[in-house]
Q: What sequence folds into this?
């Protein structure tokens, strides 16, 4: 087994499907024990745990609403109570609905902002005592290409994902004395299943762009980058925003 994160405990939010699922599997394959977090997708989260355990790894499901202080705190408390430590935090939970700005009401704005940006802040705050005690703490925030390239119908998503970039850079400064690295991975044009009413429909802004490599990326390719940033060989990387988009946007 690859022991890049061996013996460490990782909490991955939004881990029931797509990129979050791939990240959980990647970290488990590298030796980490993984807390697979989702807000309500219990069956899908359980399937991630089953896949990890079938491959010889360790994982558990923790359902939590990370958009609330109590939910984020309960998630970290449960992870620490179960495994005795938290070394790695991947803030992947997101809501990415497309809404024309004229139709974007306050509640829709807050629904997205609270999960993506508030959730990352709340989880980092709740996990901080454990990350400080780790000696190899790492936070990876999952951004979005449209926050850098722009797009229509996504003002709330773009603002929240752009906020993650600022949060990443701020926390890199604040947490460096504790030996905690903080980075942001920005996927773009990744083959994922969006679910919900939209089914398999990809975001409209995907149709506006092509990649230099001539294909869409896979969740596993994003997960590999996250896994690297969580491992020992990335301890000199912090405050960085790293794009994984096949050349669709050159940041």
A:
């Amino acid at each position: 087994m690859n022991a890049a994160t061996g013996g460490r405990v990782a909490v991955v939010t939004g881990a029931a499907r797509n990129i979050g699922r791939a990240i959980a599997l990647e970290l488990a394959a590298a030796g980490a024990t993984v807390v697979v977090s989702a807000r309500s997708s219990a069956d899908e989260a359980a399937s991630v745990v089953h896949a990890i355990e079938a491959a010889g790894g360790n994982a558990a499901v923790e359902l939590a609403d990370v958009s609330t202080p109590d939910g984020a705190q309960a998630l970290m408390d449960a992870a620490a109570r179960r495994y005795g430590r938290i070394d790695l935090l991947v803030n992947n939970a997101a809501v990415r609905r497309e809404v024309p700005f004229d139709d974007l009401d306050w509640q829709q704005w807050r629904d997205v902002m609270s999960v993506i940006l508030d959730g990352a802040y709340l989880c980092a705050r709740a996990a901080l005592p454990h990350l400080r005690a780790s000696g190899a703490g790492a936070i990876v925030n999952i951004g979005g290409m449209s926050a850098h390239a722009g797009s229509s119908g996504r003002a709330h998503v773009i603002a929240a994902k752009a906020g993650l970039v600022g949060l990443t850079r701020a926390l890199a400064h604040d947490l460096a004395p504790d030996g905690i690295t903080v980075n942001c991975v920005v996927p773009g044009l990744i083959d994922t299943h969006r679910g919900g009413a939209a089914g398999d429909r990809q975001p409209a802004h995907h149709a506006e762009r092509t990649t230099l490599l001539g294909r869409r990326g896979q969740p596993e390719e994003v997960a590999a980058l996250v896994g690297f940033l969580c491992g020992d060989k990335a301890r000199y990387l912090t405050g960085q925003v790293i794009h994984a988009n096949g050349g669709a946007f050159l940041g």
In short: Residues 196-200 have pLDDT under 50 and may be disordered.
